[in-house]
Design a protein that fits this description.
about 325 residues; alpha+beta; Jelly Rolls; Arc Repressor Mutant, subunit A; 3 domains; four-stranded antiparallel β-sheet; disordered C terminus
Length: about 325
């Protein structure tokens, strides 16, 4: 369970209880929202949701009078990465006021049971994205992106608390964090897109924090992420492998090989997953006709769409939609 307690200079503390990542993980579309005004001291809104192998929290805070926020969490040990995406947070450390503006980034390892005190000064008004990656999920990332995550392994093993703040000099972290903020709560966004944004944040953080050049192999890996972004935007009418390779500045052979290494699937399978995920969303969340959905997703005919959908889900599009409308009467494949 994640718990936030706001201690003000007068009155009793007020606590906000947030569900643990394990509780949210059962429904990847679930969003927990908590909003509270603590007397005349501060206004806090928190959104917490899961997205594949990370927990993402979006929070906004408006501090009217000096106050202390005490955050307590008990869950698996985790890597926590936070970015101020808007406004300015003024923290009181001793007798000094330390300002964290847009692009201020912090990262570190928090233990399984942790209490963090944050004293904020009046006038702070900011938005922040926080990404929490549990130790087990970090291992998944490390296996999937060894070129990128090997640099963080020592940090995770050390278990040290938050390291010094990083200022995002190139704006790459802030850009990716804002994209996460804008898209992570959309039910139609593809999970690989958000995962790629998380990786982008961490890669650019690594460069800024340790002032080390990224491995040569990362240049190729970055092109593969660019290729993935092209597919995300054009999955209805995807480019050919040759066109895609030329677009990101590599050759067809490298594209096919490294794409499968990074995403554990071929380019064709990735595009198919994008289409099928979008199809399932449209069938369950809209009343669009099946023929319109087929056309929207780039299929040449409704029959081709139905064949592909049945192969993926074991149900025809109509049977799938009926099962969403009547979940207790799940359609049985022929």
């Amino acid at each position: 369970m994640l718990k936030s307690t706001i201690n003000c200079s007068s009155g009793s503390p007020i606590s906000m209880f947030l569900p643990s990542p394990a509780e949210l993980r059962g429904n990847p579309d679930s969003i927990f929202r908590s909003s509270v005004t603590v007397r005349d001291h501060c206004e806090i809104t928190t959104h917490l949701c899961t997205h594949d192998n990370s927990i993402i929290m979006y929070g906004s805070c408006n501090v009217l009078k000096d106050c202390t926020i005490e955050n307590y969490r008990t869950d698996e040990r985790a890597l926590v990465f936070s970015v101020v995406t808007g406004g300015s947070a003024c923290e009181i450390i001793g007798n000094q006021h330390v300002e964290h503006g847009e692009g201020a980034v912090n990262m570190g390892i928090v233990p399984s049971s942790n209490t963090h005190m944050l004293q904020l000064a009046a006038g702070s008004h900011f938005e922040k994205i926080t990404i929490m990656i549990s130790e087990s999920d970090f291992n998944i990332y490390n296996e999937r992106y060894p070129i990128i995550f090997s640099g963080f392994k020592g940090l995770l093993d050390s278990g040290r608390p938050f390291v010094d703040e990083v200022i995002d000099t190139k704006g790459k972290i802030l850009e990716a964090a804002r994209d996460i903020q804008n898209s992570v709560f959309s039910k139609s966004v593809n999970p690989f897109f958000v995962e790629g944004l998380v990786v982008e944040c961490l890669v650019n953080y690594y460069y800024e924090q340790f002032h080390k050049p990224l491995p040569d192999s990362y240049t190729v890996c970055r092109k593969i992420f660019q290729a993935r972004n092209v597919l995300n935007e054009n999955f209805q009418n995807p480019p050919s492998l040759r066109e895609l390779a030329a677009t990101v500045g590599t050759n067809e052979c490298t594209l096919k090989k490294v794409f499968k290494q990074v995403f554990s699937m071929t380019v064709f399978d990735y595009v198919n997953d994008l289409r099928m995920n979008k199809a399932a969303r449209l069938l369950s969340d809209t009343s669009d006709s099946i023929s319109n959905i087929a056309s929207l997703l780039g299929f040449s005919s409704q029959s081709h769409f139905s064949t592909a959908f049945r192969k993926n889900y074991g149900l025809s599009p109509k049977e799938f939609r009926d099962s969403c409308l009547h979940p207790t009467q799940t359609a049985v494949p022929d």
